[in-house]
From TrEMBL:
The lineage of its organism: Bacteria, Bacillati, Actinomycetota, Actinomycetes, Kitasatosporales. It comes from Streptomyces tanashiensis. Residues 10-78 form the HTH gntR-type domain. Signal peptide: none annotated. It comes from the Bacteria. This is FadR family transcriptional regulator. CDD domains: WHTH_GntR. Keywords: DNA-binding, Transcription, Transcription regulation.
């Protein structure tokens, strides 16, 4: 294994975390590999074992490492969710919405092809909640879209969308400031549910894109004004 560079005295834990992230990203250890012991890492980095222990704990929490009692610490993933998070947060509102359109259009298409009775009941309940809670209730809107994504019966899709949707909200709030997005189009949501109920993937995808057309146009106009 290539030696790790010794960490400086400032923010030692953060420094060790970043160096370990780099080692993982560069393929120093593959998924499933056991990383060196705390003692070995402490010697390589020139820091105390407590510092290494805290750094490893951070990476376990981030999902990159996995501690197995009595066996050591193993690589769970070399793809850093934090890096994805930073990239999304630094993206523009229009870029984030374009990605949202792609995700939701595919989710709608799959939902129409795979939905079952439970999914349809959940969709109708989410639509009712959206009507009752008000067209600007972010939680009610998110619950609706999560119901659509849930109807794909694709666990990976659900987890990615759940993670991504929170970042969309943060990016839009930061980009728009006090300016509001247009009210949620309840009729467009109703049309999407109808297409999913009808088992029509093409119509569902089309309605999902139509549902996000006005928000896309609004963000594009605001971006143009800020230039």
């Amino acid at each position: 294994m290539a030696a790790l560079k010794a960490a400086g005295r400032t923010s030692l834990v953060d420094s060790v975390v970043e160096q370990l992230r780099t080692q993982l990203a560069e393929g120093e250890w593959a998924v499933g590999d056991r990383i060196p012991t705390e003692h070995e890492l402490a010697q390589q980095l020139g820091v105390g074992r407590n510092t290494v222990r805290e750094a490893v704990r951070v990476l376990v929490h981030a999902g990159l490492l996995e501690s197995r009692q009595g066996n050591g610490t193993f690589v769970r993933s070399t793809a850093d969710p934090a890096a994805v998070l930073r990239g999304v947060r630094h993206a523009g509102a229009a870029d984030v919405l374009e990605l949202r359109v792609a995700l939701e259009a595919e989710a709608a298409r799959l939902a129409a092809a795979r939905r079952d009775t439970h999914d349809l009941l959940r969709l109708r309940a989410a639509l009712t909640g959206l009507r009752e809670e008000g067209d600007r209730n972010a939680d009610a809107d998110l619950a609706f879209h999560l119901a659509v994504v849930g109807a794909t019966h694709n666990t990976a899709f659900v987890e990615v969308y759940r993670f991504f949707s929170a970042q969309v909200h943060e990016v839009l709030v930061e980009a728009l400031g006090d300016r509001e997005m247009p009210p949620v189009d309840i009729d467009a949501h109703e049309a999407l549910v109808a297409a999913v109920e009808a088992g029509d993937p093409e119509a569902a995808e089309r309605q999902a894109r139509e549902l996000l057309r006005v928000p896309m146009e609004t963000v594009a106009a605001l971006t143009e004004q800020n230039r």
